Amino acid sequence: MKEYSAGIVSTSFWYSEFRQYLQLIKLGMSEDTIREKAIAQNIFLASTPARSKRMIGALTNRVGSLDEDEKELFDELDIPNQKALNMIAIMNTNKLIREFMYEIYRNELILGDSVIEPHEYVAFFNKKQSESAEVAAWTDQTVHRMKGIIHTFLIDAGLVVEENGKDYIKRLQLNRRLRQLFINKGQQILVDSLTGEN
Which residue from 195, 2, 183, 3 is spatially nearest to 81, judged by alpha carbons? Predict the structure, then answer.
């Protein structure tokens, strides 16, 4: 398995579909049944069969990265925290996005700067290219698309608002119970990434 993967550029944030997937699990459906329905009946309303397969693969991985109590808590969260949990599931399944959230997003929260400028995306990818042969081998187009997907995910998660070419951070009020779940499981890094703690 690759340490870093650019495959995420062919996915989306898929919050509504993520929520629907969790609801189907709560109704007692298995992953296999959800996969079958997604492909045969297009329950997630994908634009093409190929898109449906890509979507169900990503959603299965994201939901599968969460513990049972995180899944159970989802319905009790407000929409900003539901979107945050979706973002956490994405961070769980993509190392590059997880590192961006910790190294860039968290740092902006700590500094109180509250804005991620274009050059900060560039600096992050330059750093990763110097650290990883895999990232260094990506084409300029792939790097550009990865910057774009991180930017889009931040907006879709409600963690930034774009204005005049800059990403202005919206501070998340992380749900107290969700925050405690992560801390209890030794996942303070996720709390830090979203809130700037520590």
Answer: 195
pLDDT tens track for 109-153: 999 888 999 999 999 999 999 999 999 999 999 999 999 999 999
Question: For the whole prediction, is pTM greater than 0.85?
Answer: yes
Confidence of residue 6 (pLDDT cuts 50, 70, 90): confident
Angstrom distance (rounded) from CA 152 to CA 142? 15
Q: Which two tokens stand for residue 79?
A: 């929409």
Nearest 5°: the CA angle 145, 148, 154 is 145
**CA 177 to CA 159: how far, in whole Å?**
19
Q: Say which DSSP state 103 is in.
A: I
Nearest to residue 173, comparing CAs of 196, 147, 149? 196
Q: What are phi and psi of 179, to 5 degrees?
A: -60, -45
> Is residue 197 over pLDDT 90?
no
Q: How far apart are CA 106 and CA 13, in angstroms?
A: 20
